[in-house]
Each structure stands twice: as structure tokens, then as C-alpha cells.
Amino acid sequence: MKKLISLAVALMMLLGVVATAEEAVRVDFGKTFSIARPAGLEVIELTEDDAQEGMVYAATSDELEMYVWSFPIDARSKDELYDEYRTDDFLENVEVKTIEGVEYLQYNTEEEMGAVFICSDGQYYEFVFYCVTDDAMAAAQSALDSIKPL
Q1: Are 140 and 128 a contacting pair, CB within 8 Å?
Q2: Facing residues of 126 across strands?
């Protein structure tokens, strides 16, 4: 009987972990902002090469990939940085949006959605979501809409 109870408890714990893994998880980026990572994504351990390229976060599933890069703003102004994205022929629907008083640039392609946030820490963060399905595109948009300044 004890084995049966132990098995039941272990099964409940396992089911709890599975349910938790399917919920969106808030991820903080320094002291700048947080985002709700879409449900079902598994965090990927970054390599040294990833870090050297500026990647600070990655999580994927079969239908959606989420990558975050961080780069120094350098001497460019916000408008100069935004103009680089506006003149990129590959990007579509490039527009400046605002969340809780924080301005950011959002863009998309047929299978990709991205956003660029300029932060007070002298960095800009670029979120890129690669979407296989319309549901994945909707999850990416929800994630971008969930960004909150800290």
C-alpha cells in the first residue's frame, strides 16, 4: 500500500511539473524589463559563441523559437537605430510602439516577429521569434505585449 501511495504522490508531482511547464514564465532582463516567455518553450543553454554574438537568452519548441540579443547602443541615437530597421527591405510593418511609457520598435516578416528595446543601461535588446504556425505568431505577439519595465 505504501508503494501505491508513493507512486500516486510521484505521479501527482510529475503532473504538476508538466502543468507548470505549459504556463508562461516571466523572465527578467537585468534591471530593465521582464517578458512572459510563451508556454511550452524549453530554455537552451547558450554556448560561448552565442554569448560572443550578443545572445543572452534562447528558448524553443517545435513551433516557436525565441532569441534575445543585447548590444551596446554605441554612439547611435534611438532614431538612428530605428532608421536602420525602417530601411531594411527584409522587414515588414516596422513601427514604434509604447508599453507602459517605454517606447520600442516592432517588426515582422512572414515567419518572424521581432522587437527592439533601448534601455537605460546603455544596451538595446532585440527579441526575435521564429514562428512556424499562426498560433506561434500569436504567442510571439502575446509575449511582446507582456513586456513590462522593472
Answers
A1: no
A2: 69, 116
